Fold:
Amino acid sequence: MTMTHTASTNTAAGSSDVRDTLRQMLAVLQQERHALAGMDLDMIMGCATNKASLCGTLADVDAALVDEECRGLLDAARRLNESNRKVRNLIAANVSARLDSLTGNAQLYRATAQVHRLRTA
Structure:
């Protein structure tokens, strides 16, 4: 076997591994979406753990292994993760609003809100 053939074989295997990891990430993001919709805290936490693990795997990927198919998978994962983030933020805002209404505290009077206004003024 020549060095070129071995290097291209390793690159092909590496690209395949990256694609598999990205497909796993997409599956976890879909599970997270369903968990958020069902307010399934155990599943949400499991998805967070799985995403962290997959991110650890992807952190060591050589950029040369990211081909056109990987870029498409990355884009899909980015969009789905952003969508899930928005859903999580809406849920958190709803919970905060409900807690504030129960305690009689309005968010306008929180110290962090006042500091933010002073900094942007």
The mean pLDDT is 83. Residues 3-120 form one domain. The chain has four helices and no strands.
